[in-house]
Inverse folding.
């Protein structure tokens, strides 16, 4: 991948999604179920089918429920089993996130998940945006070599409202093993300006590349192709 290439990650919820996204130019998939709940752990059958169906990397979310990002011991028992299953199913990475009750990264929980992932790359998801201090939280994540991506909207409902924060997070992560993956609220039309303004190297699309912008609708391959073209042009 060239130095100027901006990585495009697309959310997939079905095998059809995965095939469409790969054909239309996605570089990587985030596989989830429960789009309406912000993404939950997909079934083992779906993980195996998607990894078999596409040649691009597949990162799988492990999130047992959508109540909060603060998990109890039983939640962790479930998550660690799921992380091991994701690794065994041939996925490229695990997407996970856990917080303490006072809004900090749950370092102990993250360390346990990394151990269970057995070398798979870890993306820390938008639980990051609910931390008390994004720069402090990124500092914690930079201390974990296994965390190769942090998905963030810069603490705002839409990343388009957080260009300055994204720029400062990119500066903080510069030269590290961790990529700032900008997502939530990105649209095809706003993308080029956002990338030029922030100089972000990786973007994440969900509803923005679906039919009518509806998270529960199928992917729109034309939108993905337009995003790919916009990224190539920036």
């Amino acid at each position: 991948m060239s130095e100027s290439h901006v990585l495009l990650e697309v959310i997939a919820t079905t095998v059809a999604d995965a095939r469409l996204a790969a054909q239309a130019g996605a570089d990587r998939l985030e596989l989830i179920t429960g789009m309406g709940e912000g993404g939950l752990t997909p079934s083992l059958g779906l993980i195996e089918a998607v990894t078999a169906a596409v040649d691009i990397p597949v990162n799988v979310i492990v999130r047992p429920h959508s109540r909060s990002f603060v998990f109890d011991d039983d939640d962790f028992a479930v998550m660690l089993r799921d992380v091991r299953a994701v690794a065994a199913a041939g996925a490229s990475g695990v997407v996970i996130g856990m917080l303490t009750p006072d809004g900090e990264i749950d370092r102990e929980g993250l360390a346990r998940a990394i151990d269970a992932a057995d070398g798979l790359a870890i993306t820390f998801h938008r639980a990051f945006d609910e931390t008390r201090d994004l720069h402090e939280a990124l500092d914690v994540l930079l201390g974990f070599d296994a965390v190769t991506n942090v998905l963030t909207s810069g603490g705002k409902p839409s990343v388009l409202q957080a260009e300055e924060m994204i720029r400062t997070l990119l500066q903080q992560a510069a030269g590290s093993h961790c990529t700032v993956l900008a997502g939530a609220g990105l649209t095809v039309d706003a993308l080029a300006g956002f990338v030029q303004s922030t100089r972000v190297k990786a973007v994440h699309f969900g509803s923005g590349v679906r039919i009518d912008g509806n998270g529960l609708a199928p992917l729109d391959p034309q939108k993905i192709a337009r995003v790919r073209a916009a990224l190539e042009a920036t």
Remarks:
- The mean pLDDT is 96.
- The domain at 7-233 is CATH 3.20.20.380 (TIM Barrel).
